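Shipment paperwork, digital attachment
Item: protein structure file
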Amino acid sequence: MINRVTQQTVQRSTLANVQLNLSKMSDLQAQMSSGKTMTRASDDPTSAGRLLSLKSQQAAANQALRNAQDGESWLAQIDSTLQESVDALQRARDLTVQGASSATLNTTSREALATELEGLRDTLLDLANTTINGRSIFAGTSSADVAFEDSTGAYAWNGVAGAEVTRRIGENATVQVDAEGASAYGNGATSVFQLLDDIAADLRSGVEVTTRLDEIDDAMNNMLTTLSDVGIRYKQVTDAQSSLELTIQNLGSSVSDIEDIDLAEAVLELSMQEVAYEGALGAAAKVLQPTLMDYLR
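Attachment content:
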């Protein structure tokens, strides 16, 4: 059986083809103007799902990188602060060695040594109370204004033992970015600040200070141990940054492969679609019935 073909049927079919070609041209132009192969998820549901997963991984990696960069700032600050502290304590040790030769020192010389030691105590106290972004780097999660009180507060440490400041640098990796002040500088009566006060008092009163050298060495070892630990963690965050930057780069390439258009291919397709559209318009012009005006000409 042969279906009956009318003029109206041909017109509708021709107009449908014209609309289809026009729609394809519109889609190609939208892709070229946005630079993306998909303007909505329904364009390619499978690729859209993979794209969402990749972008989620990309966002997590970017956040981990920001955390690692912040952690690097903390650890770099602690590293430089502890190095300055070691230098100050080394100077205090040199002064104590000079003070140990009490037989050759008069009262004025001992007073001068004591005064300089007190200045180094203040320097160490300032270093121990260093902050970054308003937070003490040696007081853990404490909200106290300073990690260590001054002499009025008997050099008490305001931190909480074991309460670490951490940063997440991977899905299953965190790193401590602070340092426990009590481990590096001591606490209260056993702090390095009190030790320098005691040595200054001994010098003024003419007491032999040779035995204080071992105490200074112990305090310096505590600082160096903390400094070594900080160095290990600093390497951990810098290694993590390198790894995360590579991950982000790879994820970006994968995202680009899915969503970015191939411009040369898109231009070629659009040109071909324009040819098809013009052909459809030409066919439509021949199919459309003559109007009454055509007979009146």
